[in-house]
Amino acid sequence: MVLLLFVDLDPSLKALDALGGFFVLRTGVPPRGPLPTLADAWADPRTGTAGEVYEDPVTFRILKVAQSIRAPESRVAVSVAQQGLAARFWSIALGAAALCGGVPDLDPELLDWDPDASAPDDLWLREVRFRPVADLDAVVRAGLLVPLSAALRSRHRVSPALLWGNAGSALAGTVRQLDRWARAHGRPDVGERARTLAGGLLAHPDLSGTLDPGTLRRRSCCLYYRVPGGGVCGDCCFERPPRPGPRRT
Fold first, then answer.
1. In whole angstroms, how far apart are CA 200 and each of 1, 60, 144, 151?
2. Considering the chain, what percentage of its residues have pLDDT values greater than 90?
3. What's the CA angle centered on 107, arms 101 and 108, to 5 degrees?
4. Better pLDDT: 40 or 212
5. Which of 83, 127, 165, 170 has its CA 20 to 30 A from that of 214?
6. Are 19 and 91 in contact (CB under 8 A)?
7. Do the Cβ atoms of 188 and 182 come closer than 8 Å?
């Protein structure tokens, strides 16, 4: 159990600005509107609920990432885009929990999403309201990563193990960033809370097998090595980019 009763909640989430761009969450009305909520964006595009700006924000984002990294196949772009969003979700929620003592309610109905923007201008929270730190798993894994995975897999052939591996890797990366900030600013308590909370999150079956518990290296690959000029990530399960296997007839 992590007691955070002595930490003041931040009604405007401005404290997160000090942690870096991926931790920042914009609030209020986005300047580029109207934008779809995440809930609308993840809905079946055939239902016509994705908003007025983008017919299908998920597909738009995947195509944007694919063009940016010159992805050789769609699942590579899906993987990179999903890991970026997972990192955003973990950063906001875990950063607030460790620094402010509460978790902003990141209900997909409350989050406007600009798939053409990068952090921190991609997400806009319509209403700031906090939930207990105990709700961290419900807010991020269940509330955001599960529906995101479903939306991606409804449009692309991509392995759920790859997506959960990305989520575990993004969580570990968030903890490392929080720990670096905490050491640099004389706040070891923030780093300790982040590590403790992440340990509980990684115990869930969706995430428990994604990382080696001793090294925190992931047990799957995000496919970034397939990007032209890319290589293996720092926590990759491979020491070097794997060679292509024999082509099947």
1. 10, 34, 17, 26
2. 67
3. 140
4. 40
5. 83
6. yes
7. yes
pLDDT of residue 248: 41
Strands (E), the chain: 26-27, 103-104, 111-113, 123-125, 130-131
Report the alpha-carbon distance of residue 41 to residue 93 in Å, rounded: 20
Specify burial of residue 62 (Cβ count, 10 A radius: 0-12, 13-18, 19+). Answer: buried
Average pLDDT over residues 194-214: 91
Predicted TM-score (pTM) of this structure: 0.88
Give Cα separations from 131 to 66, 93, 135, 191 (angstroms).
35, 10, 6, 20
Give the whole-angstrom CA distance, residue 246 versus residue 249: 9
For residue 29, give every residue at least 6 positions away whose Cβ sits within 8 Å of its Cβ, in sequence order, or none: 124
Tell me the one-letter amino acid at 54.
Y
Place of tokens 């007691």: 3
